[in-house]
Each structure stands twice: as C-alpha cells, then as structure tokens.
Amino acid sequence: MARQGLVTAVSSRAGTAVVVGWVRSVRERVAGARGLLDDWGRPQAAPPLPTGDYAAVLVCRDRILLVRDEQARIPLFFGETGGRVTAVSTSARHLGGGAELDRRYFCRYLTGNMAQPHTELTPFTGVHRVLGGEVVELSLTGRMRGRVLRRVRQAHDPSVPAADGPGLAGAAKELRLALENAVGRRMGRVTACHVSGGTDSTSVALLAARLSAAGQGCPGDLVLLAGRFGRGELAAEQPYLDEAMAEIRRHAPAARPVIVDADDVADFDDFQHHAGDPDEPHAHAFRAPFWSRLHAAAADLGCDTLLTGCGADPIVDANPFHLHRLARTGRLRQMTGQARDWAAGSERGLWDVVSAYVVRPALPLTAERVTALVRRRGTVLGGLGGFARPPWLRPGFARAHGYRGAGIAESRFVFGRRPELSLYEAANYLAAPDPLSWRRARQDGFFLSHPFLDPEVIATMRRLPAETALQPGRPKAVLREAMADLLPPRIGGRVAKVPFNQLYARGLRTHGDELIDLCRSARHPLVAEMFDVETLCRAVREAQFGMGDSYSWDRVNSSLALVAWLERLDRRSRAPRAAMPVTPGP
Fold this sequence. Notes:
Elements: E1 2-4, E2 7-12, E3 15-23, H1 29-41, E4 52-60, E5 64-68, E6 77-81, E7 84-89, H2 92-96, H3 103-109, E8 127-129, E9 134-138, E10 144-149, H4 168-186, E11 191-194, H5 199-213, E12 222-228, H6 238-251, E13 256-261, H7 271-276, H8 288-300, E14 305-307, H9 312-316, H10 322-328, H11 332-346, H12 350-362, H13 364-375, H14 395-400, H15 403-415, H16 419-430, H17 434-444, E15 447-449, H18 455-463, H19 466-469, H20 477-482, H21 489-492, H22 501-521, H23 525-530, H24 533-544, H25 550-567, H26 569-573, E16 580-581
Parallel strand pairs: 11-12, 11-14, 12-13, 14-15
Antiparallel strand pairs: 1-2, 2-3, 3-4, 4-5, 5-9, 6-7, 6-8, 7-16, 9-10
C-alpha cells in the first residue's frame, strides 16, 4: 500500500490498483481504492461504479482495467500503437509527445466550451481519452477487449420525475441530506472552502463547518478562502462576504479565514502561460489568474481538497427546459402559463423565454443561423452563438475536418432529445474546467471539488417536479429552503450577485493589444491553416469595445486559448514523460 500526493496505490490477491483522486470519500482514499480493486478484481466482474473523483488503472490477474468516474474531474488517456495499448497517463501530452495533431479534435473543441470532456478525441493521433463513466478492458498484453459506459446509481436516476413528488418542504429536506453527504465525501485532512458571499458557496462552507464541528476532522482543519476586491463593482460583494465568514465561524470557531487581495487581478493576465501550459487547450483559460491565486494560498496551508459552489446554478435552480417537455408532449396551455411565470420571475419577455427554452433546443443550428442573419449587421461578433462556425475559422478547414458534424454533435449533447435531462449532463462539464483544475492539482497537491455536481445531488433535483422548484422571483427556491436554518437572512434572500464582467473587461482593455499581437505573430503552421487571423483580431477588438455577448465572447476566448496552446506546444513536448506502462513489471 502507498499514498503519495494525488495517487493511491494498493495491492491484494486481486491485483494492483493505482488511483488518482478518491473513491467514495477523500478521508478514506486507501479504503476506497482497495474496495474498487476488490469489486473489479474478480474474473468477469462488472459492478456499478462508485461515486468519487477518480481515474484508476487496475491490473488484475486476468485483465487490465482503465476506469474513470462519471463526473470526469480527473483526466485519463491511453496511447495505442498497432492495435495495442502501450501506456496510460493523466496527461495526453506525455503520451502524444511529437505525434501528429488530429485536426478533427480542433473542430470539436471550437464548437463550444463543453466539447473536450465528452469526446474520445484528443489533440494527438494515437492518444485516446477514457470517457467519464467508462471502463476500458485490456488483456495483460495491452490488447483492447472492450469499452463500456456505466452510469452511477441508476436506481436514483429515474427517466421521468414522479408527478406526485414532494412539495417544497420535502424537496428541501431531500436536497439538504444529499448536499450534506456530498460535502462530507469531499472533506479531507485539511479542507478549504471557497467563500464568495453568494448562496451557493456559503451553503457549502456552512455544511462543511457543521461537519467539522461535529467531529469530522481535527480542530483548525477548515480553511475559508476568499478573494477580496476593494474597488470596482466587485467591492459591493464585500459586505456579503463578511457576513458569510462571520456565520461560518460561528459554527466552526477554529476555521481559518484566508483573504486573498485580488484588486490587481484581471482576466488574461499572463495568458500565454495559463492557456499554453495545460495538456489541452481550454476555453476558460482567461479566468485562470483569479483561481490560481486562490489555489496558491490553499496550497501554502497544506489543503488536500478545495470545495467550491460552482455548478449550483443549473443544478439546484428550476429547470427551464421543462417547458420544452410540456411543448413536445402537447401541453401548450400549461407551457404558456409556466412560461409567463418564468418571464415574470426573471424580468424577461414571454417570447424570450419560449425562444430560449422551447424553440432553440428544438432547432439549435437553425436558430443560430437566423439569429446571426438578424444581428450581424457588419460585425464579427453579432449574432454568433455557441455552435455555428465563427467567421474567423476558415471554411475550407471546417469542411475538411468535420466542423458541421462536430457542431451537430455538440448541440445534441447540450440539448439532446430531452433537454430537461441533458441540462444536467452539460452542466457537469461546463462548471468543471478539467484542464486548468487538473494542472493546478498536480502542482498544488489537492483537488478542486464540486459538491453541487455530486451524482446524489443531481439525482435528487432530477426527481423533483418542475413546479416544486419554480418559485417566480425566488431563484434556487429549494436550496434556499434547504439552508434556511443556516444561511444569514441577507445572503439567503439575495437574488443576484455582481458578475465577474469587470475582470473580463479590464483584462481585455489591458491585454487586448497583446492578444492581437499573439495572433499575428503566431508561428505554428496550424494557426494560419485554421484561422483567418485578421478576422480573429477584429473579433478581439470588438470584444474589447464591449460588442457581442457571452456566447460570442466564449468563441473568442476558446480561439485565443487554442492559439496560445499551439504556440507553446513544441516547448511542452520536450518535457520528460510521466506515463504508466499497462503491463506489470518483472
């Protein structure tokens, strides 16, 4: 048995397991790894996958298994040559090295910021991704035997919510229990909680504080981590942050508050480093400076997990795509009435709600084309949505390497045949930036963990009737009810937070010229083959002037991240390899 950093290795009569991350519980990593080996080590065994954030290689007596949990926080790749898997790694780059780049991957990546974690493609030919929830079976000599996707906790995942489900009080009780379990599974020896003063992060930190006070940990093992903005729009969040900190410490007086001054942080700071160093390009690299500063503070304190409230918005709020289900099942009058309630509660027009949650999911690519024709009017960013080809991506490259098929696949993943269920699948990948969080994890020795994306929490919300979760004018009504006895009134009653738009705008004002220079000076041949560089530079300039919207800015951000990633590719490829042979040593 061995445990070092993020890796746990155990051996038994069943074989050997190497687990990156944790199975079932952070505190019981060794026991969880041993349980995974015992469950799968029996010949032909195929038990359900346990919960956790892990990737594992199990070398059993008669086979080798590559396993990844369904939430897909920890990456896992394998290299294949001549029909034989030769090595496994959490780094695609270490397996790919100087391999030829797979241009299909870049078309898939450019369709949207959820593309990477749910496709087998990687940037390198001959390197494949183990998908979330997948079990890859190999012979002892590395020959492929099969690949199977397995769902977690199918018994808690009904395809149709019960029509006579619990009322708000009952739903809140179920969510409270599920969220407490999710937080408890993620608490380690020293646990950090990101606290922003919002409902989501404060809820997670309060539950962690109560668990810590109840004996699940040593005194002082809880760190409250926050970024402080003393000026600008985000300074308005400080009173909420102060109140959240005070309430959390009331439950856990020994908790250590760590306030990180973030006034000098802006998006795109040191962009070539943050976007260029991950194993894969990542659309959210522009936001890395803020998170990196918080991660560094947690690492200095020896934390082994960092809990965040990310992911709560799509999971515990009312599911707007329920309107799509009502429409496709012919309940138009009911759909219209609920859409009116939705519009009134969100201060939007009725048509805006119907268009976003009924029409666009039914015909996503067509809706984007129509929007682009109406709104473009001579600008690069006008009307640019999440799937259609951005104007700076060369048409010839897009046709040659399957951009249209990639866009269709991405739209089907985001909306699916039942968008009200696909929302939860897509949220899992949108809220968990694997490449960035994993790069920091390897550097700092701890994980960024998401209790709101726990399978039990997701299954609980999926079971609830939409009418229970929808309270016009009261977003996240079930969560607020669930945490009513803990949340301070000022935080429990707030319905809006100051967004991070100011950091983005400041970053573009500060670094816009550098980003344009990065594109124009790029030397990697794929940049010119893929992009009309001047059109991309024009898009950066339009975003700098505040033109466009979140969809179009995401497309710019992902393209810039790809340029930076390609520019640093050769330098990273010369780094020493860290891969695991798939056959046991002598």
